[in-house]
Amino acid sequence: MLMKDSEEKRSTAWRTVLTVSSVLLVIVAVFFIVKLFTANPLEGTWIGAEDGMTMEIRDDDTMTVKTAGDDGITVETAYSLDKDNKSFTIHLSDERIREQAEESDGKLTEDEIRDVLEPLEGTYEYNIESGMLTLSDREYGSRMVFEEK
């Protein structure tokens, strides 16, 4: 009788362990598959190879741009990403530029912020290879190269 109860308990415990581990395995697999196909490939910090400009691209469709040097200007702007066409569009908003100038308490003017962002505004084709991000302008063919930090 004790062997029978013990065997049933072991069997129940074994089935419970297998069920829980199977469910956890499926959850982890689904997480990685979703992350693989829905993640933003540009998310992260990128440093310009030519001018040292730093772009921090976040998953919430905003990015921070910092110019090179000790007195670098840091500004924010919005972007959109089309993974199907591999296009990256940087948007400028006069309202957001005005807000940043006001938030800086006189340290930055609207013109300084615009000078940082206007050369970046536009739609680019992006390519990521070996930790290097290449943004190619669709209209003029100019390129910007960034290294992943």
In brief, what are we looking at here?
With 149 residues, the chain is of the alpha+beta class. It has helices spanning 2-38, 94-103, 110-117, and strands at 44-48, 54-57, 62-66, 74-82, 87-91, 122-129, 132-137, 143-148. The chain has two domains: 1-39; 44-148, Lipocalin, CATH 2.40.128.50.
Strand order of the largest sheet: 1-2-3-4-5-6-7-8
The CATH class name of the largest domain reads: Mainly Beta
Query: What is the correct CATH architecture of the largest domain?
Result: Beta Barrel
CATH topology of the largest domain: Lipocalin
Distance between the termini: 66 Å
Mean pLDDT: 88
Total number of helices: 3
Counting structural domains, the number is 2
Estimate the global geometry from the Cα principal axes.
Answer: elongated
Stretches where pLDDT is under 50 for at least 5 consecutive residues are none
Query: Could you tell me the number of beta strands?
Result: 8
